[in-house]
Amino acid sequence: MSGQTITFFGNFGTQNLGNEYTLKAILENLRKHLPEARFKCICTDPEDAAVRHRIPAVLMSYRYGKAFRSSGTRSGTLPRLLRRVLVRLPLELMEWLKAFRALQGTRMLVMTGTGMLGDFGIGPLDLHYEILKWSMLAKLRRAKLLFVSVGAGPIADPLSRWIVKRAIALADYRSYRDAFSKDYLARIGFDTRQDSVYPDLAFSLDPQGRGPSERDGNGRVVGVGLMDYYGSRSTSGRGEQVYRRYVEKMTEFVEWLLDRGYVVHLLIGDLAYDTRVRQDVQRRLQERNPARANARPVEPPISSPEDLVAQLARTDVVVATRFHNILLALMLEKPVVALSYHEKIASLMRGVGLGEFYQDVDGLDVQKLVDQFTSLERNAAAATSILGRKREEYRRALDEQYAAICTI
After folding, report:
1. pTM of the model
2. What percent of the chain has pLDDT over 70?
């Protein structure tokens, strides 16, 4: 594959640190295996992705461009219909032509990460449509199409299911990051018998920050990973209620930690969305106990995946909601209690032997969370030992996968 181009596709450049870490992992590993290959990226924010990963990047679709996102205006049914027929349809035809040109010279189009085969926050004519479009064009370009360690499901929308199955049917190689994803696709009628299951690609990086925590004074450091959680399928009004309940319960748990002398670091995993929730938890702590002065959570600066990994490395125990806060903490061999909003989190926790240390975030029970936390802390040494063995097992499996896909 010397001198040929490998193109990555995904929801990159959007300041979701988990997505960026996924791209970093596969990019660094393929650079080791294929030092002469060229790399580029098809994504939703090419300016950010190009700077962050130092590779050429192309906008996935004009619909993700800043100008299009900021130009949304309300209009009647007839004007909307005319706009779609007279403007959007010709634009989309041009997008297919531009995408075909963008794939010139591509030897391999790699789909990975970014929640692309589920519909948590994704509609059928959003990312799913783009996956099918770019997959079809890759095959027209005679490029190999790979879905590598992707997560799949649930997918409620029938059109999304149809689109996803058509896209992955075109692939020359498919692997899933957990057994749930493979089984889910089989349950909705896609033949996965020839497909493989490999760990999440994040486990294939060896972060510099791995090691013992950095104590702030004598207190044990607890990383509390927050997420702007509005429910998986809530309406706007209902979603705000879900969010407020989540903030209240996380505030109650943080207060419990502070009252017992723990040093709490409030961590985030998405720079575009999670700033609000961190501020709201701090505000509710102040409202619940105005006299609290010194014992307040720390808000460490986080602006990159490397920052997040470094902050997780400074903790003794992590309690988190966002998937990659959980995953990266486990990769660092940190004991974790997970608040699960998706089967992928439950599957991840069971896979590393911590199946008793997660609960459904929609039914978050603070007393149960306290009990899980105290139990995990008592057994932290055993949990860390298990995670060390799992991490090496996952690393070897991913090395095997990288070697395999480089021969396709």
Report:
1. 0.89
2. 89
